[in-house]
Amino acid sequence: MADYALTINGQPLATEKTFAVKNPATGEIVGNAPAATMADLDKAVAAAKTAFETWSVTSDEERSKACMAVADVLEQNAEELAQILTAEQGKTLNGAGSRFEVGGAVAWTRYNASISLGVEVIQDDNEAKVEVYHKPLGVVGSIPPWNWPLMIGIWHMIPAIRAGNTVVIKPSPNTPLATLRAVELMNQVLPAGVLNIVTGQDIPGETSLGAAMSAHPDIAKISFTGSTKTGKAVMRSAAETVKRLTLELGGNDAGIVLPDADAKAMAEKMFWGAFINNGQTCAALKRLYVHDSIYDEVCDALVEYAKTVKMGVGTDEDNLLGPLQNRMQYDIVNRMVEEAKAQGGRVLIGGSPSGDPDKDGFFYPITLIADVDNGLSLVDEEQFGPVLPIVRYTDIDEVIDRANDNPNGLGGSIWSRDVQGARELAKRLECGTAWINDHSPIRPDAPFGGVKSSGFGTQFGKEGLAEFTSMQTVWS
Ligand code: NAD
Fold it and tell me: Among 151, 223, 225, which residue has the most ligand 1 atoms within 8 Å of its CB, making it the best to mutate?
């Protein structure tokens, strides 16, 4: 069991207090994370503010090179980072697990290193030259969640740094360790103060580090990924200092299966669209609407596929799904499933955990529940776990209304052999990303973000990089 330190101004900083991070599969302590004080946070912000003076005027080429070096150092240490992630988050090493997550972190870093916003020329003639510059904002605060802790941290940190900002990241108290180690490694190739990290617990009744960052006068922008409830709190705290925000919040993605879909051929993609990372993924398929004419066929195909997927401790190379990350999420999932069963939901597979979460880890079985509808918490709210409700429909216009009848709007999908027709229907879904015959793939160059209560702002692509800048128009 290792003790971890903060990294502030390029130096390790041990704190007086620490907190234990436990493995959700076994309950064992994985490591001790530093419990930063508000004074530590101020120190980190001050270091970032000083480093900004130099980093913001470093050439675009230098910053690109530094981000490439970050990608290299993460790649060279990928297996160590993956092992830490599996131990603290629970996800498997294989499948779309921690090796995949670290690979994503490297890929996103390389992509951001390779793009540049440049200068846009609006007019350049005898009369005038009008140019638009992208200027870095200052110190960026990054607040990621616990589901994809390292990759989402990278989505915040790297475009911010690439664009000339400096960063203070505060990981989720559930999963701080891989990010603490990654930031330590990244500091081997970044100038001191460009990237700093603080960690601490969220203690009810006390101001959390995240809340203090959201209100901090020397932080120019918060990049937040997490629940809609906390996102609203960030927005309130940020109002006083008129901070810029990117908020990537909760999702409750609907998938709609049309009568002409090939149930058997699509079952595998449908399954992983919902169960990637045990359903603990913002843009996972969280409610599936299936046309009455193929309802039973789709249910059977999903059950058949689900039976082939192994769940267990993440370090077993054969397992593809691990435990839920924490007890709170386990209890939410359990409550929703019990309510669905009590309201007539038909369990096709799973539905009753066999172990005791206090002794046997937070394992919840793969669960498919049929004959449910809007109005039930499992359909209306984000379950964030390995449970998929399957809803029957008969009328396409009416099912689009039911899919859109939700405060969230992150992703959505249409499943059909008629891809062109499916594209037209996808445009009617109120969401930031729509997939045809798939759900949840992302890529570093395709803009990603939510509508409605799923937040605002764009990640990925040049648009995502531009979010870490302000535009200045210069006339001459
Ligand atoms: P959460 O909102 O509980 O926590 C997110 C982060 O906010 C943590 O680091 C936490 O310590 C911090 N925090 C807590 N109180 C705060 C406060 N008052 N001010 C500022 N920060 C505070 O979310 P979670 O449970 O870690 O993550 C799960 C949620 O994240 C789900 O709703 C999921 O859909 C969402 N999510 C969204 C995306 C996306 O891209 N839209 C991606 C991943 C996860």
Answer: 225
Pocket around ligand 1 at a 6 A CB cut-off: 143-147, 152, 172-173, 202, 208, 210-211, 214, 225-227, 230, 233-234, 248-251, 282, 382, 384, 410, 450, 454-455
User: Given pLDDT bands bounded at 50, 70 and 90, which one contains residue 412?
Assistant: very high
- Per-residue model confidence (pLDDT) at position 1: 73
Domain segments of the chain as ranges:
2-249+451-475, 253-436
So which residues are the catalytic ones?
248, 282
pTM of the predicted model, to two decimals? 0.97
| CATH class in words for 2-249+451-475 | alpha beta
Directed axis angle between helix 149-162 and helix 177-186, to 10°?
30
The length of the chain in residues reads: 476
Which of ligand 1's atoms lies nearest the C-alpha of 410? Answer: 41
Q: How far is the CA of 339 from the centre of ligand 1 (A)?
A: 25
Find the 225 Cα to ligand 1 centroid distance in Å.
5
Domain 253-436 in the same topology as domain 2-249+451-475: no
Residue ID of nearest Cα to ligand 1 atom 6: 145
Looking at the CA of residue 282, tell me the nearest atom of ligand 1.
34
Dihedral sign (CA 216, 221, 225, 230): positive
CATH number at 253-436: 3.40.309.10
Which residue from 154, 202, 451 has its CB within 8 A of the most atoms of ligand 1, so it is best to mutate? 202
- 248 C-alpha to center of ligand 1: Å? 9
106: CA distance to ligand 1 center in Å? 23
**Number of C-beta neighbours around residue 475 at 10 A:** 9
pLDDT digits (tens, 9 = 90+) for 196-234: 999 999 999 999 999 999 999 999 999 999 999 999 999
Question: Tens digit of pLDDT for each residue in 35-57?
Answer: 999 999 999 999 999 999 999 99
